[in-house]
TrEMBL record:
Organism the protein comes from: Thioclava marina
Protein name as catalogued: SIR2-like domain-containing protein
InterPro entries with a match to the protein in the record: DHS-like_NAD/FAD-binding_dom
Highest taxon of the lineage: Bacteria
Pfam families (UniProt xref): SIR2_2 (PF13289)
């Protein structure tokens, strides 16, 4: 969002607006959809509805929003790609901002998509750095992004190689979550699987979350249930704490 991209509600609003402009839905239907877009529990269902209504135009909206050539990486993107001891970067975002940040630094990085598990597994075996676009990207295959209920069912149950690679990543390495609400259905299922496999506690993971997103009780449950340490940050000054944290990692990286 710091680069000017929409959140979930904003994206759904763009899809609704497109459908209304194209006269694919009535004004009453559009208002009903906007009410659903205000409820985070209805996001996936509404996304499925809009994808079916828009048809081929769904792809157009995704390309226009996330493939905008005027989008530029933020300082957080630049700090992230500067961490030399990263084993990998995983993003569920559809944009190309991480690839652009690498290109600006003189490196070329093309992200694997969830359906390229063979290449992902090869780099895991070789312990080579990789970038994983876990839910696809808007530039190379906007029609294959993961956004709806059906999309999540497909990635959870029809991509066994990808799921196997994710399980390997989360059982071999500590993962730091930046800008994630930890509510992604795929992530929750994965963490539950790992918790069942290692009930005494596996490798610790970490997540930066704002203090208004999570309280002490929930923070304690994440640690007990998933071995996930929540690092509280402030949302002040456009989430400046995020950049401070990445700068800290960069300093540690250099030692």
């Amino acid at each position: 969002m710091g680069a000017g991209l929409p959140d979930w509600g904003g994206l759904l609003g763009s899809l609704i607006e497109k459908a209304e402009t194209d006269h694919s839905i009535s004004g009453d239907k559009a208002e009903d959809c906007r009410e659903l877009a205000a409820d985070s529990n209805k996001f996936l269902m509404l996304a499925q509805e809009m994808k079916e209504i828009l048809g081929v135009e769904f792809k157009t909206v995704i390309e226009d929003v996330f493939g905008n050539p005027n989008l530029k990486p933020t300082p957080a993107h630049e700090l992230l790609i500067s961490l030399k001891n990263n084993r990998f970067i995983i993003t569920t975002n559809y944009d190309m901002l991480i690839e652009q940040a690498f290109a600006a630094s003189g490196e070329f990085r093309q992200g694997y998509k969830y359906y390229e598990a063979h290449a992902l597994q090869r780099d895991l075996y070789k312990r080579s750095f990789f970038l994983l676009k876990a839910h696809g990207d808007a530039k190379t295959a906007p029609e294959h992004i993961i956004l709806t209920d059906k999309d999540y069912r497909r990635i959870l149950y029809k991509e066994p190689g990808y799921q196997s690679a994710l399980q390997s990543i989360f059982t071999m390495y500590s993962v730091i979550f930046l800008g994630s609400s930890l509510q992604d259905p795929e992530l929750r299922l994965l963490l539950n699987y790992i918790n069942a496999a290692f009930p005494e506690g596996g490798i610790p993971h970490y997540a930066l979350m704002t203090t208004d997103q999570i309280g002490d009780t929930e923070r304690g449950r994440w640690k007990k249930d998933y071995n996930m340490r929540i690092i509280p940050i402030s949302s002040d000054n456009n989430y400046e704490d995020l950049n401070r944290f990445l700068n800290f990692l960069k300093e540690v990286d250099a030692e």
